[in-house]
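Hi U.,

Before I forget, here's the chain from the pilot set. I'm dumping it here mostly so it's searchable later in email.
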Amino acid sequence: MWGFETGGAEMRLVRLANAMRGRFRHWIAPISGRSSATALFEPGVDWELAEVPRRATPLGFARLIRRLRPALVQTYNWGAFDAAVGAVLARVPLLHTEDGFGADEAAGPKARRVWARRLVLPFAARVAVPSVTLERLALDVYRLPRSKVLRIPNGVDCSRFRPGENMALRRELGIAEDEFVAGTVGHLRPEKNYGFLLRAFAEAAIPSSRLVIAGEGPERARLRALARELGLEGRVLFPGVVDPAPWYRMFDLFVMSSLTEQMPLALLEAMASGLPALCTDAGDTSGMLASPDLPAIVPPGDLESYVRALRQWASERELRRAAGARNRERAVREYSMAAMVERWRALYDECLSGR
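Structure:
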């Protein structure tokens, strides 16, 4: 993968490795060199970093793969596509995973990348996707055979992410019990469109309110500067990378402003935590929430609608309570971690059995 940090795909891999520890040995090869998510592997997970070739080309990756001799190569998204080609050249089973797009492809995949996928991915053992949107793309745009594509919805640990009130954390941060807190957790990348979220929060001007944007990434300095420019200093918190479970229990509303998403883990975690959610209509978010009667989904970039929805959520406590309970029930019923782990375990076994 391009980087092994605290994004959705990386966190899913961490949780799968933890759940299947003792069964596999993992070589992690982040092309960017960033590997902070390795700190989240539990004891018993057998892993090590593999040195990315100095020339990160298909031939360079083919040489690396031949040297390591793995039973299976798993690649993630376009950022690791040269490694996918390298696995094909090295004649090692390839499991390619598509999780979404960057800001440069928010409106759709680039033609050159579509053609590359059409040429290479038929040689993969399987192509795995988490969302209905990506499944349709793989079948209709990349023109992959049905037998190659498998959709495995993301799952969430509903015992770790659970409803509750974290007043201790509020007191620690100087937030009053009756303040309205909107919060989000994610990697601070352009496609998350957090600048839009800051502008919407400023425009909403909700009395006695705070916004929390938890995570790290290349947008951090720009977002902090924008918060100051909008007069939000002291009302917006940037706590960096956090253990998200206790932070969700401090929020009144989960907010997402992305230009592009597929099946965001952060939304699943918020749902399991019993939170109502306000999201842009990206990827599978509308289907995940299944709340046409609520101000839960707005078009990406529609500032007026987002501000109106923020104000409504802030003013209607009972609406938040009912929506949060429904989200929790849906997460438990349809998005369990155990079901996701078993489907990935079966996929790994299938790819390895055909080696």
